[in-house]
Amino acid sequence: MRKKIVAGNWKMNLTFDEGQKLTTEIVNMYKDENIKDVTVVLNPPFVHLFPVKKLVGDTPNLFLGGQNCSDKASGAFTGETSAPMLKSFGATYVIIGHSERREYFNESNELLTAKVKQALENGLTPIFCCGEPLEIREAGTHEDYVKNQLTESLFGLSDEDFAKIVIAYEPIWAIGTGKTASSDQAQEMHKALRDHLASKYGQEAADNTSILYGGSCNPGNAKDIFSKADVDGGLIGGASLKSRDFVDIIKSF
Ligand code: 13P
């Protein structure tokens, strides 16, 4: 059975003290409010990983992830962070191919294939992001566009490696805009993606793949979005920076 997952992507936000405060609040609420059956992943900036890990400790179902990793294992690549480093600092997940990485850092589907490989070789679960810009949605070609992102970056994986992937569908027009996709739009795309995955890896593998929705998710809309059959959780940006909002989203299943 596929996992329900809520991941918080802090993006490039929060100082050391702010990160510590947020994490402490989330961990306390998480324990006090007896949350069960949801995998929670905190994805802070790299420099927060170690101190955040110390606060999270061995809290069941609460994990750490990077927001990106290098496509190389090590070497003279100033400013980069490798998958083995993430692993060694306690991360077990890594976001790969976020639309902001694709857009501002020119990350291609081909480069993302190499990053996914690095993550998998080092025992990290990739949260692989996909999603269309507004003009593609308006042209009505969004399903093909997003399916192609999966085909080009993931369809070279073996069955065994594919089984370790988490997908996050994040329509670019809904990210940070306050304009969320409707739950029906999310369901329609998630179903199309699951069918696409089934065409390559079989129905059982597709049914076991968690597909998260991301884009202006908040405590007010999460319940509706998460109630859809093919939506298995969320990748949360802005609302993951507020402990109460983030924990309320986790409790929205
Ligand atoms: P918002 O929740 O701020 O729209 O961001 C979504 C996102 O990009 C998560 O990766």
TrEMBL record:
One of its GO terms (molecular function) is triose-phosphate isomerase activity. It is an enzyme of class 5 (isomerase). Its EC number is 5.3.1.1. It comes from the Bacteria. Its main location: cytoplasm. It catalyses: D-glyceraldehyde 3-phosphate = dihydroxyacetone phosphate. Pfam families: TIM. Keywords: Cytoplasm, Gluconeogenesis, Glycolysis, Isomerase. Pathway: Carbohydrate biosynthesis; gluconeogenesis; Carbohydrate degradation; glycolysis; D-glyceraldehyde 3-phosphate from glycerone phosphate: step 1/1. Signal peptide: none annotated. The active site is at H98 (electrophile), E170 (proton acceptor). Substrate binds at N9, W10, K11, G176, S216, G237, G238. PANTHER family: TRIOSEPHOSPHATE ISOMERASE (PTHR21139:SF42). Involved in the gluconeogenesis. Catalyzes stereospecifically the conversion of dihydroxyacetone phosphate (DHAP) to D-glyceraldehyde-3-phosphate (G3P). This is Triosephosphate isomerase.
